[in-house]
Every structure is written in C-alpha cells, then in structure tokens.
Design a protein that fits this description.
By secondary structure, the protein is mainly alpha-helical. The protein is 47% helix and 12% strand. It folds into 2 domains: 68 residues, no CATH class; 121 residues, no CATH class. The protein has a 3-stranded antiparallel β-sheet, with no helix packed on it. A two-stranded antiparallel sheet has the order 1-5.
C-alpha cells in the first residue's frame, strides 16, 4: 500500500487523523518479506494498534483494522472545507502573497496528503518553468497558485479543471504584477496574454 494511500485511508473512530510517525520494519511472520509496522496510539483511549503493511504489494482492496474507521465523505468534507476556504481567500486577495500563513497551511496540507506532481500539468506550464528571467519568487508563487487551484478544482468537481486552474494562475499573476511592479516578469506577459487560454 502506497504511504499516502495508507495515511489517507483510516481515521480514529472520532474522525481524527492518525499519527503514522512511529514505524519500524521487520520480516513478516513465516516469510522473508519485509513489512512496515506502524504503532498507532489512540489519543483518547490510549489503546495501541500495531498495523502491519507490506510496502511492496499494492491492492485496490484493504481491510479496516479493528479500532479504526475508513475515511469517508463526511470526514473528508469537514477536513478539507477550511483548506478550500483558504484557497478562495488567496484568490480573492489583491495580493495573495501577503497571505503567507494561508498559503503555507494549504501547501502543507496538500503535500502531506497528495502527490503534488499529480496536480501539475507540465505541458501547460512549460513556459513558466523555462522562463529563466522572471523572478524566482514570482515563479514559485505561480506554481503554488496552480497546485492550490488544481486541488480546489478537483475537490469541487469543477469541469475542465485544468482550464479553470490556468485561469486562476493568470488572474493571480496580474494581481502579483500590479502589487509588485518592480518584479522581473521575463516573458510571462507574452506567454500569458498571447495564450488562447
């Protein structure tokens, strides 16, 4: 089971996230295979669960260990709603870079729970990566905006999520340039505004 899938499959019965940080590897019972053993301590009851996971085998099916529950839509909605609201606030701000706390929390959440590479459309963003003259702060900000809004679009089930995400990045680019007129833009103006997107 992939680590992110493992971390995002289970919760404590009250819906709280589980601390998977206590882990060691050992040989499986009666086999030469290595298994990871996670020591999970319920913060409410102090009960301990030892979860044995074979990191080299994947399966679409998984059991729900006694003492845990499967992540479900209700828990997920409660968990991600504040993140989605923070993304909306960044998009609505005149200069989203000023909301560093929001951006930090959003990016931490996404990086802990998802593979960010899955949220980046390399072919659509090639012009951003290749612009060596634009300020690094601007490039980094645009990439964070793209990741945040791609996550938002997928969470909200927005149609044509890539187009939506690119539009949000373009809008935030305009706001950044307005708030930071001294920023070196490289060829980003040309790329954004001659693009058909």
């Amino acid at each position: 089971m992939h680590a992110l899938k493992l971390f995002n499959s289970y919760r404590w019965p009250n819906g709280d996230k589980i601390d998977f940080s206590k882990r060691y590897s050992t040989r499986g019972a009666g086999s030469k295979d290595i298994v990871d053993v996670y020591t999970l301590v319920n913060p409410d009851t102090k009960d301990t669960i030892w979860l044995h996971v074979d990191p080299y085998k994947t399966s679409e099916k998984y059991d729900i260990p006694k003492g845990l529950i499967a992540l479900n839509a209700t828990i997920l909605k409660t968990e991600i709603e504040p993140i989605l609201e923070q993304i909306e606030e960044v998009n609505q701000a005149e200069d989203g870079t000023k909301l560093k706390l929001h951006i930090g929390e959003i990016m931490n959440y996404i990086s802990r729970n998802f593979d960010q590479n899955q949220l980046i459309d390399l072919n659509k963003l090639e012009f951003v990566f290749q612009d060596k003259k634009a300020d690094k702060v601007l490039i980094d900000y645009l990439m964070m905006i793209y990741v945040m809004n791609k996550y938002y679009a997928l969470a909200k089930d927005i149609e044509k999520e890539t187009d939506y995400t690119f539009l949000k990045m373009k809008e935030n680019y305009k706001k950044f340039v307005k708030a930071n007129p001294e920023a070196e833009k490289g060829k980003l103006d040309e790329s954004f505004f001659k693009s058909k997107n």
